[in-house]
């Protein structure tokens, strides 16, 4: 903002001046955790039970849910 007003000032000087005047920057969190593990909904049982080497094909299927940020949320 200072650069757009034509003031040439470095970030370290801004940091020092803010510290001298007791000012602190407000940071917005960039990522919001949406997982709620403390819910009352039913939870599926662990049928794999840590047996990671099945005896044949199509015995165990796994997947991964990856959170992808989009502009629409």
Shape designation: elongated
Number of strands: 0
Order of helices and strands: H
Report the biggest beta sheet as strand number plus sense, adding barrel if it closes: none
Give descriptors for this structure.
73 residues; little secondary structure; 14% helix
Description:
The protein is largely without helices or strands. It has a domain at 1-27. The protein has 1 helix and no strands. The chain has one helix at 11-20. The chain is elongated and about 70 Å long. The two termini are 27 Å apart. The mean pLDDT is 83.
What is this structure's SSE topology?
Elements: H1 11-20
Q: Could you write a compact summary of the structure shown?
A:
Helices cover 14% and strands 0% of the residues.
């Amino acid at each position: 903002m200072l650069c757009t007003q034509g003031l040439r000032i470095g970030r370290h000087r801004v940091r020092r001046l803010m510290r001298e005047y007791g000012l602190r920057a407000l940071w917005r969190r960039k990522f919001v955790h949406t997982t709620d593990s403390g819910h009352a909904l039913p939870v599926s049982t662990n049928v794999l039970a840590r047996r990671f080497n099945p005896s044949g094909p199509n015995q165990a299927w796994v997947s991964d849910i990856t959170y992808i940020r989009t502009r629409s949320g």
